[in-house]
């Protein structure tokens, strides 16, 4: 999965220009309702991000000039991803940011939001389609996934991801199976997994989220 599948396109992104004044930018951010927005020049070349809090601190705590330019208040000038960046690299970078700017040929083409990242996790948990969510563990980390898929042969696996990667003692796996199973069928399936050497930690019926 690449970022281009998840980004918010440039035309939908609120931005400010690098040559605007502190007052103009603060007024624009207030009107947008966001706490941080990307900064570009007249040709859409990416210049960084500007935070509402830094504008306020400059004006009211540092007695700054409201007619000065914003270049000295820019952040994350070199923190961005491209449309071809992997989801994993985006996940690592976005943790401490309100969003990630997506840049191609030095120009802003969109942003990746936390909501977009969360939608991928929702999909893995089956929240978009609904289903049976099982969290299980095994003491045999090596070959665990192969063994699990063989045990679940014939089941429609909607999603799967692992936790505790790197552990040599135990690993948890979260799998989502298609909905429609009765309680008796779920009990039969968990019994089958337990006989296969897996410990069932949690079973949840996930309703579809619109």
Describe the protein.
- With 210 residues, this protein is α+β, with helices and mostly antiparallel strands.
- It folds into 2 domains: 3-118, Roll (CBS-domain), CATH 3.10.580.10; 126-206, Alpha-Beta Plaits, CATH 3.30.70.
- The protein contains 6 helices and 10 strands.
- The protein has helices spanning 22-32, 52-61, 87-94, 114-125, 144-151, 183-195, and strands at residues 8-9, 16-17, 36-40, 46-51, 99-104, 107-113, 131-138, 157-163, 171-177, 199-206.
- Strands 8-9-7-10 form a 4-stranded antiparallel beta sheet, sandwiched between helices. It has a 3-stranded antiparallel beta sheet with strand order 1-6-5. A 3-stranded mixed beta sheet has the order 2-3-4.
- A hairpin with a 2-residue loop joins strand 5 (99-104) and strand 6.
- The radius of gyration is 23 Å and the shape is elongated.
- The two termini are 23 Å apart.
């Amino acid at each position: 999965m690449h970022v281009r599948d998840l980004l918010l396109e440039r035309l939908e992104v609120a931005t400010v220009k690098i040559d605007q004044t502190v007052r103009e930018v603060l007024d624009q951010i207030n009107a947008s309702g966001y706490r941080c927005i990307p900064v570009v020049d007249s040709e859409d070349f990416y210049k960084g991000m500007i935070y509402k809090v830094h504008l306020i601190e400059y004006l009211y705590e540092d007695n700054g000039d409201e007619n000065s330019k914003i270049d000295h208040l820019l952040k994350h000038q070199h923190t961005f991803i491209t449309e071809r960046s992997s989801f994993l690299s985006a996940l690592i970078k976005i943790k401490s940011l309100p969003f990630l700017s997506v840049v191609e040929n030095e120009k802003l083409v969109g942003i990746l939001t936390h909501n977009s990242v969360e939608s991928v996790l929702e999909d893995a948990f089956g929240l978009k389609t609904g289903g049976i969510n099982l969290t299980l563990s095994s003491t045999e980390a090596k070959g665990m996934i192969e063994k699990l898929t063989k045990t679940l042969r014939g089941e429609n696996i909607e999603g799967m991801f692992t936790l505790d990667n790197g552990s040599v003692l135990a690993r948890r796996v979260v799998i989502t199976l298609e909905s429609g199973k009765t309680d008796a069928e779920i009990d039969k399936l968990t019994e089958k997994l337990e006989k296969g050497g897996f410990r069932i930690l949690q079973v949840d019926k996930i309703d579809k989220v619109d």
